[in-house]
């Protein structure tokens, strides 16, 4: 990467913001392709970004993409990785599909009418609550009438959305908190018994409804009101398109069901094989309750979540096999760019070697790393739609910035092993 024309972190912004210096004639010629070549791809100046974020992104694209000084050399294209929900779109497409499935009676009675079969982490209390609410009248393998049976819909929704039964009992236990979020996995597991084509149809129907609904729409599932709209972020749509035109290999790494995000990604030019998400095993062409593992770990023990995202990036995109997929890879192999909004994204975004974009949803580990900005490669961006106001208290990076595998909290350490100080929320709506 050539010497930047944008300078490190700007204290007032809390991010690696562009401080543009005069551009030389040679640089200007290169920016426009030089010698009659086609112009370098440019981000849409009419789309608002916070502070100097667009300029910093443009400079990075110019340097690392096909217009950079190393353009034309042999080797793999630079890799750019995006989380999906609340990073590329506002709201959650996994939620949207789950809510649609509940409203339309698509979730099947488990084998033996035993809810513990749906997830190895479902607690006995949650399994019993689901059995009591959904009953035994529906034969195993047949769709439950959640569109009309509010008790059943409410119980499933509570377990999925809150991680508890409607009575408040913990719904999941016994998992690695840096590799698994069982509620996310359960959304995928609840679609067992369908073909991938059928699930894609559910996702397409939910997509159409959520894009057509006005911003702020609520929909009713059981007796509850839940989010009923999704929007693509225009800025991220533009960024993905420009990165692709600049020669980047753009991929999505998501903790939503892979098939669902494949449906949503098509309109952004994201091919199905460019999406890595929660991926069900199939039998006789239909989904099972088993989820494909990573890094030699057994099925159902890891998903595309936090450190699990690193594993799937390394395994499915970089081709690293076995337990080494959990390890930080050499810089020359890793992604140049990473973008995310949540702690589930903290590890893979941190692994990016060129530039890292944190969409501020006030998630502790991600924002602690972004605001600390130890190497000047982090950008912080308020949500493009309905950005949050300033967090009232500092992020507790020095005491509770890191989640241990057992779910306990610990101080967050930087790459040198030093405790990251608490950080004030400086970039917000």
UniProtKB/TrEMBL annotation:
<dbReference type="InterPro" id="IPR023214">
    <property type="entry name" value="HAD_sf"/>
</dbReference>
<comment type="pathway">
    <text>Amino-acid biosynthesis; L-serine biosynthesis; L-serine from 3-phospho-D-glycerate: step 3/3.</text>
</comment>
<comment type="similarity">
    <text>Belongs to the HAD-like hydrolase superfamily. SerB family.</text>
</comment>
<dbReference type="InterPro" id="IPR050582">
    <property type="entry name" value="HAD-like_SerB"/>
</dbReference>
<keyword id="KW-0460">Magnesium</keyword>
<dbReference type="GO" id="GO:0006564">
    <property type="term" value="P:L-serine biosynthetic process"/>
</dbReference>
<keyword id="KW-0732">Signal</keyword>
<protein>
    <recommendedName>
        <fullName>phosphoserine phosphatase</fullName>
        <ecNumber>3.1.3.3</ecNumber>
    </recommendedName>
</protein>
<keyword id="KW-0378">Hydrolase</keyword>
<dbReference type="GO" id="GO:0036424">
    <property type="term" value="F:L-phosphoserine phosphatase activity"/>
</dbReference>
<dbReference type="InterPro" id="IPR036412">
    <property type="entry name" value="HAD-like_sf"/>
</dbReference>
<dbReference type="GO" id="GO:0005737">
    <property type="term" value="C:cytoplasm"/>
</dbReference>
<feature type="signal peptide">
    <location>
        <begin position="1"/>
        <end position="28"/>
    </location>
</feature>
<keyword id="KW-0718">Serine biosynthesis</keyword>
<keyword id="KW-0479">Metal-binding</keyword>
<dbReference type="GO" id="GO:0000287">
    <property type="term" value="F:magnesium ion binding"/>
</dbReference>
<keyword id="KW-0028">Amino-acid biosynthesis</keyword>
